[in-house]
Amino acid sequence: MTGIISSDNTHHLAIPALPGFLQSDLDQCARLPSLPTVAIRVLEVAGYPDATLNDYANAIEQDPALTLRLISLANSAFYARQQTETHSCREATSRLGLDATLAAVLSFSLWRDRQSGDLIQRIWGRSIVSALAARSLAEQLCPEEASFVFTAALLQDIGMLALLAVYPKDAHDLYANTTFSHAQLSRGEHLRFGCDHSSVGSWLAAKWGVPVSLAQAISASHDEIGTQKETYLLCLRLSGPIADTWLSANPSQALATLLRQLSPVVTTPAISLSDLLKNVQSQLPLLTNLFELTVPSSHDTEALIIQAQQLLFQQTFVLNARLNAQQQELDELQQRQTELEERSRRDPLTGLSNRAWLEEQLHKRFEYCQTHDHTMSVVFIDLDHFKKLNDRFGHQTGDRVLERFGRVLGSLVREGDLAGRYGGEEFLIILPDESAKGAQRFAKRIAKRLAETPMETVDGKPLFVSVSIGIACLSDGGFGNGRELIDAADQSMYYIKRNGRGGISLYGH
Fold first, then answer.
1. pLDDT of 203-238, one tens digit each?
2. Which residues cross the membrane (predicted)?
């Protein structure tokens, strides 16, 4: 860890400022967690880049009780790698390293009230489990950051101590609710205090003069997992949820839930969950004993993982079944919606498009042609003598003629064309990118098919029909909108009807 100058470092933090009222209350609070003289001296020593281990040891030795606890920590199985014991503060500091020494000094200094109630015990218990989990993760993923991650995880909840000091009733009411998850506690803090304890903890640590990098890590410790670029931040952010899982009343269920939540967001090298939990299990009694804390519940780690995996499988199976049922229901709803939309566009008798859909599509196509300098043609068709046919053979026969004509028309249009029933015995076809002559050839195919194909059989005799067809092409007139184009085709159709029916007329030709 780089050297620092022991002073108020809050102005160096690259984090949002605390709400004004909260910072004012923190500044004025006489009960705010503070550091004893020896901890301040350690921070002062850290302010000099060329400080030696003797400098750290000399500062720490001013407090004999702290010195003994530091030596005890260095000799514990948590840190001891050799057979030899450390007997001096210098040897202990050398074995622990600066980060862990700083964490131990700060933690031992802050945890002075051994008779604190269950709430403070629970806060520190979570911090210790978090620190162990963070260190185990870092040893797997970023060994060079393990000591720093341990320190940050151990101090990540110190903001809760500050909020308890400033707002004892509000904070106690919030933290005493054991049914709340840590994420729910953070949301509750935002509602009550305008920010969460990670921001307060970062401010408090910087106020003491800890390195800015450590204060900023505390601030980032509760951010969303998966948004970090640095591996050490992943270890730090995972440590809290792992601690919550360990301390849960139903750890296997909590672990299964955590694994399910993490699976889509955590992208790291493989993490040995078994090794991590074993490390927490073996090292937890040592640290809690040093801090004189009640040891949190122990677990059969292998059984815990197996139970969690079984629960995760069951939850995944149930969830997949629910998702499949929901997806099937959604597919059915979408299918019904598609069918309803399709039905709303169709003429029920002929199966062709209805007038509303024809006019809507013509309007869109007209705008497209105007913008992109394309053309199109419309073909307006009227069945000749249809009223007489109805009067002579009945409306049922007339309906069958319309239905059969619709099928004929649908079989003749190309992909991209749109044919529909415009109303009564009138039909309209929209031909994109088609000239008047091309539309005329299409109209001739319709007339030829009708001359060859009876539309109905009446009393055993074939019933043929003829049509009057009018064509208008966008390129042949100064049309202002699609409605004018239809009117032009309609006029051309009526020219044929007035002149004997059964023919084709091109507007403007």
1. 888 887 777 888 899 999 988 887 777 888 988 988
2. none
131-140, 242-251, 378-387, 446-455: range with lowest mean pLDDT: 242-251
Residue written as token pair 């780690």: 301
CB within 8 A of 349, min separation 6: which ones? 399, 402, 403, 406, 421
d(CA 124, CA 113): 12
Cβ contacts of 427 within 8 Å, gap of 6 or more: 352, 380, 381, 382, 405, 406, 409, 419, 420, 421
Q: How far apart are CA 420 and CA 133, in angstroms?
A: 70
Element (H, E) at 429: strand 426-432
| CA 485 – CA 465 distance, rounded (Å) | 26
Structure tokens at 106: 């700060």
- Say how many Å lie between the first and final Cα of the chain, rounded: 90
Please provide residue 293's backbone torsions phi and psi, each rounded to the nearest 5 degrees: -100, 155
- What lies within 8 Å, CB to CB, of 509 at 6+ separation is 436, 476
Q: What is the pTM of this model?
A: 0.54
Query: How many residues in the chain?
Result: 509
Q: How far is CA 339 from CA 335, 336, 344, 421, in A?
A: 6, 5, 8, 19
CB 301 within 8 A of CB 274: yes
CATH number of the domain bearing residue 450 = 3.30.70.270
- Count of the separate structural domains present in the chain: 2
Full DSSP string of 444-493: HHHHHHHHHS-SEEETTEEE---EEEEEEEGGGS---SHHHHHHHHHHHH
Count of beta carbons in the 10 Å neighbourhood of residue 406: 19
- Residue 159 near residue 127, CB atoms below 8 Å: no
Point out the domain boundary residue: 110, 133, 155: 110
- The verdict on residue 412 lying in a domain is yes
CA distance 118 to 124: 10
Q: Domain range spanning residue 103?
A: 34-110
For 467, half-sphere exposure in the C-beta direction (CA atoms, 13 angstrom radius) is 30
Lowest mean pLDDT, pick from 39-48, 301-310, 456-465: 301-310
* DSSP, res 11: G
φ/ψ (deg, to 5) at 211: -55, 140
Sort residue 287 into left (φ over 0), alpha (ψ -120 to 50) or beta. Answer: alpha
Whether the CB-CB separation of 89 and 67 falls below 8 Å is answered with yes
Query: In whole angstroms, what is the distance from residue 314 CA to residue 323 CA?
Result: 14
Q: What's the rounded Cα separation, in Å, for the pair 211 and 11?
A: 12
Distance between CA atoms of 11 and 236, rounded to whole angstroms? Answer: 24
Q: Which of 382, 357, 369 has the alpha carbon at shortest distance from 477?
A: 369
DSSP state letter for 144: G
Is 93 contained in some domain?
Answer: yes
